[in-house]
Design brief:
The protein has about 190 residues and is of the alpha+beta class. The chain has a single domain, classed as Rossmann fold (3-Layer(aba) Sandwich), CATH 3.40.50. Helix content is about 25%, strand content about 20%. It has six helices and eight strands; from the N terminus they run βββαααββββαααβ. The strands form two sheets. It has a six-stranded antiparallel β-sheet with strand order 2-1-4-5-6-7. A hairpin with a 5-residue loop joins strand 4 and strand 5. Helix 1 packs across helix 6. The protein is globular, with a radius of gyration of 17 Å. It starts with a strand and ends with a strand. The C terminus is likely disordered.
């Protein structure tokens, strides 16, 4: 299982994030010279991890920014595309509004955009939350985990440790390293000015 893409139905407000099939690193870096005296806090590292948790069907936490400011995000629907062990993909659709139902679409090509796909084209639509968690667990073959989904396991971590835990579990699967290499290859780095 690897992260493939995180996007929303509001691309002008939330730009899609396409993950590399190898190792992805979430890093805060200030590039603009006029901002060099600022620190790298509050640039979205933890927020990204929380959005991934949301896509992995974590429960509704009233402290989470999507629900703390639900009026601002009520029209948002997030899509998490995940590469499966068999080489296929599943996209999870989850809205912010109310007790939204979950939808699933299994497919063979990566980096799809199903934000305008009609309900009839999804494999499972309006799935209640508890049933959706079971369905996602079956897609990802997480039935052996006693604690449930990785999203629920990662909730115990905070800040950068939480992000690293989420990514080490979900994404870290670097390509085979060349003989004699002593460092992990880093194929994509998400940055913000």
């Amino acid at each position: 299982m690897k992260l493939s893409k995180l996007y929303s139905n509001q691309p002008s407000r939330f730009e899609a994030i396409a993950f590399s099939p190898e190792l992805n690193v979430v890093m805060a870096e200030i590039r603009l010279p006029e901002n060099q005296d600022r620190d790298t806090h509050n640039l979205g590292k933890t927020t990204l991890g929380r959005l991934l948790d949301f896509g992995f069907l974590a429960g509704r936490d009233p402290k989470f920014f999507l629900f703390r400011h639900e009026q601002q995000f009520t029209d948002f629907v997030f899509y998490l595309e995940i590469e499966l062990a068999d080489g296929g993909y599943v996209t999870v659709r989850r809205g912010v509004a109310g007790q939204s139902r979950i939808a699933f679409k299994k497919h063979i090509a990566r980096h799809q955009d199903f934000s305008s796909l009609p309900d009839r084209a999804w494999d499972h639509v309006d799935v209640p939350f508890e049933r959706a968690k079971d369905l996602l667990d079956s897609y990802l073959d997480w039935r052996a985990l006693k604690l449930g989904t990785i999203a629920r396991v990662s909730v115990i971590f905070f800040g950068l440790k939480r992000i690293l835990a989420t990514f080490s579990i979900c994404v870290v699967s670097p390509a085979p390293m060349p003989t004699g290499s002593h460092s992990l290859p880093i194929f994509s780095v998400l940055t913000r000015s």
